């Protein structure tokens, strides 16, 4: 089971109401390389991955939910005081008529989240390579978000998330090596 | 300084959680300590025989608990399902605002 902690993993401060930026950030909420996809991918793959890396998939998958909460907090804070007119001006008119200011699992273009974004191949190396690629794609997305963002407070939180993708990628690469070592040892004996 | 007053019924008295500078400072210290624990957890998952990292993990786990005791005694429970470090009450403080996205 999971235990909720009533705190964010890292502080999320917002300089001012900015629905345009919120619209871009939705990419990391319900997009293909977003935090929801990451959490669901790792926590699903772990059932069929060798014991040696189950802990890693569990712990990274869990951390992804903390990142999802950070992204949700950014979007919530950036839009909570926006008027319908401001949402419309930000290109969120379509979102408003369907969801008001509620968060919705979709990407920056409004495409709803789908399980088709994630794979579970049952082959440990194939799964871990997908995980490494996912982290690198998320890192790139965070970089593009930082480049397009005009909110210095949000950028601070986005830089934290970008760095976490780098660490996760490194840990997954180590997991690949651990499994390769184990495979080679089995060949010798 | 942002002050948010959250009112809950505790018997006939109303109490308020004051979200002050100290709240953010203490929360920041917890976030920093817990970040060390997250980072060491992932590191130990792929380097399980690093005793030095393990010692550091145990040391920070104690430190984090100490900070959480301090926070929870001032601002209410941080952890769900009985994992709180300070007894809850009077009243079911867990459901009390603020939630993480509200501060």
TrEMBL record, chain A:
The keyword Calcium applies. Mn(2+) binds at residues 35, 64, 67, 135, 168. One of its GO terms (molecular function) is metal ion binding. Keywords: Calcium, Capsid protein, Manganese, Metal-binding, Virion. Its cofactor is Mn(2+); Ca(2+). SUPFAM superfamilies: Ferritin-like. It comes from the Bacteria. Binds 2 manganese ions per subunit. Ca(2+) binds at residue 59. Pfam families: Mn_catalase (PF05067). Belongs to the manganese catalase family. This is Spore coat protein CotJC.
